[in-house]
What we know:
five-stranded mixed β-sheet, 12 helices, alpha+beta, 322 residues
Amino acid sequence: MTILCVRFQLPSADEAALPALLELLEEFTPVVEALPPDGALADLRGAERYFGRSAVELASVIRVRALALHGVDCVIGAGPGPMSARMALRGARPGVTCAVPEGGVREFLAEKPVVALPGVGTATARTLCEYGLDTLGRVAVAPLSTLQRLVGARTGRELHDKANGVDRGRVVPNAVSRSLATERPFGRDELDPDRHRRALLSAAGELGARLRAVEKVCRTLTLTVRYADRSATTRSRTLGEPTAHSAALTRTAYGLYEALGLQRARVRAIALRAEALGPADQASHQLTFDPVDEKVRRIEEVADRVRAKFGPEAVKPGTLAA
C-alpha cells in the first residue's frame, strides 16, 4: 500500500483551511494531489522507505498531527493505487484506516456494486445490471468483448481493467488555486428536490460572480452531493466552452444533478466546484443571437458593478435568473 486518500473533516467546505493541511501532507511526501474542498491523495512510496514505516502507520501519524496542529480529524483510505485508495476511503472512519492490501484489490472489489467504481455513472450501471453484471466481481470475469459491446470499446476496457484491480492512475501534484468551490449545507437532511435545485442555483450564481471578479473562466464543473450517512457522490462535466456565465453554470449543475437520478435522497449538503480555470480574456464565446441570454449577461455585468461598489452582499447570488 503506497497511496493514501485523505478526507479532512472540516466543519464546512472551507477552502482556506485546506492549503495548511496539504502542507502537513507535504512534510511526508512532495507528491500530493489536492481534492478540494476537503481531501487529498498522497503517494508515500518514498516516505515508506525514508521513515521506515508502512503507509498505514504513516496515516496514523498524519491523523494525530492534523488533530494536534489544526484541530481537524480525518478519515483515510490506503491502497496500492489511487482508485483502490479512493474506494477504501468509503470504508474508513475516524481513528481507523481502511487499507486494501497489495495483490488483494480484486478480492476487495468483488462484492461491491458496479456503481461504486469511480467513473461509473447511473446510465452505465443500469446497462450492466440489466445483463446481470451488478457487482464488480461479475464484471471482472465477464468477457472483455461483452463489456465493450455493452458500454463501448474504451469504456469497456477501462471497466474490465479496474474491476480486475488494474489501476493505471497516478497522483498528480496540483494547486488548490486552480479551482473555486462553494457549498450549500442544509439545516436538516433535505428530501425536497426543489430545495436541492434552489441550492444549486445559488451556488452556481456565487461561482459565476467569483469567477468574473477574478477574470477567470472554468472548463469543468464538479457537483458533490453529501448524504445523511456521510457518504457522497461526485460527478464532473466538461463545459461546451469555458465560461463564467452563471446561467450556463446553473444549466450544467442541473444536468449533473438530474443525471444522479436521486430518489428521495436525504441530502446534507450540495457543493459545486469550478475547475480547469483560465484567463477570461483568452476564452472564446459562441454567439447565440438569443436575446434572453444576452439580457442575462448584461444584467450580470450590472450586478458585478454593484458588488464591486457596495460589496459582495449587495446582490445575492442566484437571484438574477437561471
